[in-house]
Design goal:
Its main location: other. The chain is of the alpha/beta class. The chain contains 13 helices and 12 strands. The strands form 2 sheets. Strands 1-8-7-9-10-11-12 form a 7-stranded mixed sheet, sandwiched between helices. Helix 9 links the parallel strand 9 and strand 10.
Length: about 425
């Protein structure tokens, strides 16, 4: 989704001997709408990006040699089993092992057990980030499934990957009599025209996978269904820490212009910083770059920093690009983990071709808490903080289960019981 007149994309990097939380690379100006589609909902395209006019640049300084890594073992197994010894800095691995065990365990229902019952006949509209994106479409379909179960009429509208498109879809929905609106992976602060129209019409807005602010202020939503962004990042850090025995040498790449990707990054960098024997070798921001450009960025980073053992990516498409770059370089000793678990990333984990784990918020199950929050809004009840089921996926899991890799769990049963729905 190239944007006319888009500024050149730049990527900067820093090399660290220890995680430092006050220094971040700068991100050149990019269109929020285009990045939002990538970060929050995924794409059917091969690269997941549009080309920009300039290739990414790196500023990595001379890196430590492989002898500095503290470990000669390669992260190729993708297994959730790991060593139990103390880490390289003398701290115990037990807290990270416990967190990893919790993240890889199949979820259970932790939604509300009491609340208002849905009123049949409600008319709602779901505005997706972009209809062509698989994650957004799956979320919208889930909302329709949950809405159908309570007798609601659900219309799915295309936000077209832009604030203008999303606002126009909201206004169209309001004019067509929608009583509630769901935003999927859309930054509500960027669509004030649509949000103001909904507020003026008394139409509640619930968002999912957007990390929007809840409240009555400008651009704020009635409720946000969390994709557990910080957990998505910290779970990957726990995996790296445990798999390396507490000596992980990592590179981090994230989009700095979105709340969701920033929260994923904060979760990762905060957790990896608790590992005294681990090191963030390279910490970079990136933007809307093409597959070729991002491949060059990965290759350049690894060439300049041969001690890197693990790579954190905040967006699944770019994790898959990084995994492919590793295969092209013959670097089977480096593992990639990303957020969203789109099919190419999961397949790479299965095949052992670069990806070793991914953080999976099951968007195909997002409709149930979303419909519950709209039910609360219609009943005049205060919003609750609800979330989408989460699980960190490893090779052990994806080899024996099928999508959405929740070991058969669905929140539908819990919500139907709450609503008094028997079918």
């Amino acid at each position: 989704m190239g944007q006319p007149g888009m500024p050149e994309t730049m990527v900067s990097s820093t090399r660290r001997r220890r995680p430092s939380f006050g220094r971040r690379a700068q991100l050149a100006a990019l269109t929020t709408s285009a990045l939002l589609v990538l970060a929050a909902c995924g794409s059917d395209s091969g690269s997941g990006t549009s080309s920009t006019t300039a290739a990414p640049t790196t500023a990595a300084s001379t890196a430590p040699t492989s002898a500095d890594t503290g470990s000669s073992e390669a992260p190729t197994s993708g297994s959730s089993e790991a060593p139990t010894s103390s880490n390289g800095g003398g701290g115990e691995l037990a807290p990270f092992e416990e967190a990893l065990a919790a993240a890889t365990a199949a979820p259970t229902y932790d939604g509300p057990t009491e609340g208002p019952k849905p009123e049949a006949g409600k008319k709602i509209a779901v505005v997706t980030c972009a209809a062509v994106n698989t994650g957004c479409a799956a979320t919208a379909d889930s909302v329709k499934e949950a809405g159908d179960s309570v007798g609601w009429e659900t219309t799915i509208l295309d936000g077209k990957g832009s604030p203008t498109g999303a606002s126009q879809a909201m206004i169209s929905a309001i004019n067509s009599g929608a009583e509630g609106i769901v935003l999927v992976a859309i930054d509500s602060s960027t669509i004030l025209q649509g949000m103001n129209a909904a507020k003026s019409a008394g139409v509640p807005v619930v968002s999912a996978l957007s990390d929007n602010q809840m409240g009555d202020g400008a651009g704020q939503v009635y409720a946000e269904i969390s994709g557990q962004s910080e957990l998505a990042g910290s779970a990957i850090a726990d995996y790296f820490i445990v798999q390396s025995g507490g000596t992980a040498k990592v590179a981090s790449f994230h989009i700095a212009s979105l709340a969701s990707t920033t929260n994923r990054y904060n979760g990762f960098i905060g957790e990896i910083g608790k590992c005294s024997g681990c090191e963030v070798v390279s910490d970079q921001t990136y933007g809307l770059v093409s597959q070729a450009e991002f491949t060059n960025l990965i290759k350049g980073t690894l060439t300049a920093n041969p001690s890197i053992e693990y790579i954190f990516l905040d967006v699944s498409q770019y994790a898959s690009i990084a995994a492919t770059a590793l295969q092209q370089m013959g670097m089977d000793n480096v593992g990639v983990a990303g957020v969203d678990c789109l099919p190419p990333e999961v397949q790479s984990i299965k095949d052992g071709t670069g990806s070793v784990a991914c953080s999976n918020a099951a968007v195909s199950l997002a409709g149930w808490p979303t419909v519950n929050e709209l039910t609360r809004a219609f009943a005049g009840e205060p919003a609750m903080e609800e979330k989408i089921p989460f699980r960190l996926l490893t090779k052990d899991i994806v080899d024996v289960e099928t999508a959405p890799y929740m070991d058969g769990f669905t929140p539908a049963d819990g919500y139907k019981q709450l609503w008094g729905v028997t079918s």
